[in-house]
Amino acid sequence: MSSPTLFDCLATIPDARSRHGIRHPLSALLGVVALAVLMGRTSLAGIARFGRQFGPKLAFALGFRRGLTPSTSTLSRTLAALDPVAVEDALARWVKARLPPTDWEHLSLDGKTLCGSRDGEVPAVHLLAAYAPHAQAVLAQVRVDAATNEHKAALQLLGVLPLAGRVVVGDAAFCQRDLAERVVQSGGDYVLIVKGNQEGLRVDVEGGFAFEDAARGIAVATSPCGRSSA
Predict the structure, then answer these.
(1) 73 and 25, same domain (yes or no)
(2) Are 41 and 76 contained in the same domain?
(3) How many whole angstroms separate alpha carbon 219 and alpha carbon 165?
(4) How many domains does the chain fold into?
(5) Are 176 and 151 a contacting pair, CB within 8 Å?
(6) How many CB atoms lie within 10 A of CB 189?
(7) What is the rounded distance in angstroms from the CA atom of residue 183 to the CA atom of residue 176?
């Protein structure tokens, strides 16, 4: 069975618009958005110009019934009405279907604030992503709400990813007992940085390494090979 295309995955996103007065099929609209972004357009105005630039031939190929692609305002209204979780799920299905399992044995958790996303008193959008370094691809991401934090968002993110046989890597923000338990219970392993946020654990880890170094030194000093000859 062949892997689904990006267009196939985008077509599964629910259409939140009223059925009355719909001018552009949602799958066609999302298709032109995806194609324009892949061609380097980074704004709604740029995406709208991209559609007009290639004209009816591209429009009909993507499924626009009248040979016309949407305007900037139509793009804005339609995209704002979409369910972000459904969009993320569709994109994640497309990415994962194209990655060999060995390309994402290692997953990195990382949070980023979107530049320019703050609007007055409205805080900037902060996203937490599961990134596969070998594939250079984001497998899934969730929005971190102002009322929560990256730790709780990570629990949600790991709940939708198959972790068996994989290693999850994260910085000190993710060094939490329940997150580590989630990974292990799912059949994975973890490498998490310990810093001042887990002071007791940090002391235990440092003590463990210090004991290991001391034991190794004693073993060398007391072994026949380690003694100097008389």
Answers:
(1) yes
(2) yes
(3) 35
(4) 2
(5) yes
(6) 13
(7) 11
Question: What CATH number is associated with residue 117?
Answer: 3.30.420.10
The amino acid occupying position 82 is L
Out of 93-97, 152-156, 188-192, which region has the weakest mean confidence (pLDDT)?
93-97
Q: What is the pLDDT of residues 100-140, one digit of tens each?
A: 777 778 899 988 887 766 767 777 788 899 998 888 888 88
46 and 75 share one domain: yes
Task: Determine if residue 136 is left, alpha or beta; phi over 0 gives left, psi from -120 to 50 gives alpha, anything else beta.
Answer: left
Distance CA 120, CA 149 (A): 21
pLDDT, tens only, 170-202: 988 888 889 999 999 999 999 998 887 777 787
117 and 153 assigned to the same domain: yes
Asked if residue 116 and residue 188 are part of one domain, the reply reads yes
Q: Which residue bears the tokens 């440092």?
A: 206
Domain that holds residue 48: 6-84
For residues 42 and 33, the answer to whether their CB atoms sit within 8 Å is: no
Six token digits for residue 205: 């880890």
Return the structure tokens found at 176: 């939490």
